[in-house]
Amino acid sequence: MTEFIGFVKLKGGSGATTHVINFAKYQQKQGKNTLIIDTDYSTISATRRFFTNKELSDKIKPENEATSLFENNSNPTPLQVDERIWLIAGNMNLSNEEDRVKQGMGRRYLFFWAMKHMAEIQEKYDYVVFDPHNDNSMITQNVLLVADKLVIVADVDNDAMDLIPEVMKNINVIEKIEINPMTMESLVNAKIFVLGNKVKHVGRSHVQFKKDFEDLMKQHPDLFIGFVPDREMIHLTKIDNLSIFDLENQAKYQDASHRKFIKQVETIYQKICEA
Ligand SMILES: Nc1ncnc2c1ncn2[C@@H]1O[C@H](COP(=O)(O)OP(=O)(O)O)[C@@H](O)[C@H]1O
Ligand SMILES: [Mg+2]
Which of 139, 172, 221, 230 has its CA 20 to 30 A from that of 190? Predict the structure, then answer.
């Protein structure tokens, strides 16, 4: 069964896109196929990882974009961007569709698209991974509704933990509204996880975040699945468009500390898959 996973962030810069890309690359290593759907119209940064500014206009056509997921009966054509990785590209104008989406099928566009094309999706992809904007727009609510799993990416920030209930609240609201009239069951059935990100070794706030997170992992191991340290290696995902799995065989990354880091990230991704 194809799994639909949304990497949700509480604020921009948390590391959601970083984990979307690295998760897809991790799956590539496992021989699994991933479709990335970029609905973060504020940055389209998942799309920018694979296309330069010039290529954005030359190579991406309207039928390759997430915008067409929010039109009746439309089925976009994903672009293959890497071995075993496909992309439905982001478009910075997607937010302009918000009113039309609200007046139309609202938060059900992605759900209906997935239902209608499930056979094709199952055949092609093991994972469909979403990179939504950190808002509660109808576009983002579509992701919350269609997801089997939602990974909340929280970085070290005094507000990060306080914002988690906000995301939970958004999900709970939709859960109550979106009921299947035949069975009276909610259409929202996502399992939720929290991934701590960018944790440094030093600094009071980092040490405290790590401690708080570890306590939460003990209390709610199914929800708080682990944290990822702040490492230059993963940052290269952005600057050199490489994943940690592209770098892991390079001589520079063979030391115990880098190997431990890669293992740590893999363990978290594996937990997401197995949960
Ligand atoms: N664990 C990490 N260690 C170091 N840098 C990171 C880590 N996670 C993300 N980053 C960096 O943080 C910045 C924001 O990440 P990004 O994935 O674009 O965030 P978001 O999608 O949540 O806005 C990027 O420059 C990225 O390379
Ligand atoms: Mg992003």
Answer: 230
Q: Worst-scoring range by mean pLDDT, 114-123, 161-170, 185-194, 205-214?
A: 161-170
Q: At 114, which CATH number?
A: 3.40.50.300
Global pTM value: 0.96
- Closest ligand 1 atom to the C-alpha of 45? 18
Q: Residue 13 Cα, ligand 1 centroid: separation in angstroms? A: 6
pLDDT at 23 over 90: yes
Ligand at shortest distance from the CA of 47: 2
Can you give the pLDDT at residue 142?
97
Residue 261 domain boundaries? 3-274
Residues whose CB falls within 8 Å of the CB of residue 20, separated by 6 or more in sequence, listed in order: 7, 36, 46, 129, 130, 131
Strand order in the sheet with 85-88: 79-82, 85-88, 34-39, 127-132, 3-9, 149-155, 191-199, 224-229
Q: Check pocket membership of 238 for ligand 1, CB cut-off 6 A.
A: yes
* CA of residue 133 to ligand 2 center, whole Å: 7
Q: Can you tell me which atom of ligand 1 is nearest the CA of 14?
A: 22
Q: Structurally, how many domains does the chain consist of?
A: 1
